[in-house]
Amino acid sequence: MKNTAMILLTITTLILVALAVMVSYNVAFPMVFYITCAGQAIFIFTVYKVLTDKYSTEKTFDDWYEDYPIEDK
């Protein structure tokens, strides 16, 4: 995954945390509603960016996990 996808995921997470704080402090409904809609749009864009990323690898399922490699026997 490229850095842009990670940045978009961070922004989406910050928006969700900010919404939770806004709701707990009884911020006006229109503001919460529009920020929620913007967060959903950013999330959909993030999913699109991750799925259309030009990423390829030489690894296969036989390589297992990178932190727990299986030795060839």
UniProtKB/TrEMBL annotation:
<keyword id="KW-1133">Transmembrane helix</keyword>
<feature type="transmembrane region" description="Helical">
    <location>
        <begin position="31"/>
        <end position="51"/>
    </location>
</feature>
<keyword id="KW-0472">Membrane</keyword>
<feature type="transmembrane region" description="Helical">
    <location>
        <begin position="7"/>
        <end position="25"/>
    </location>
</feature>
<protein>
    <recommendedName>
        <fullName>TMhelix containing protein</fullName>
    </recommendedName>
</protein>
<keyword id="KW-0812">Transmembrane</keyword>
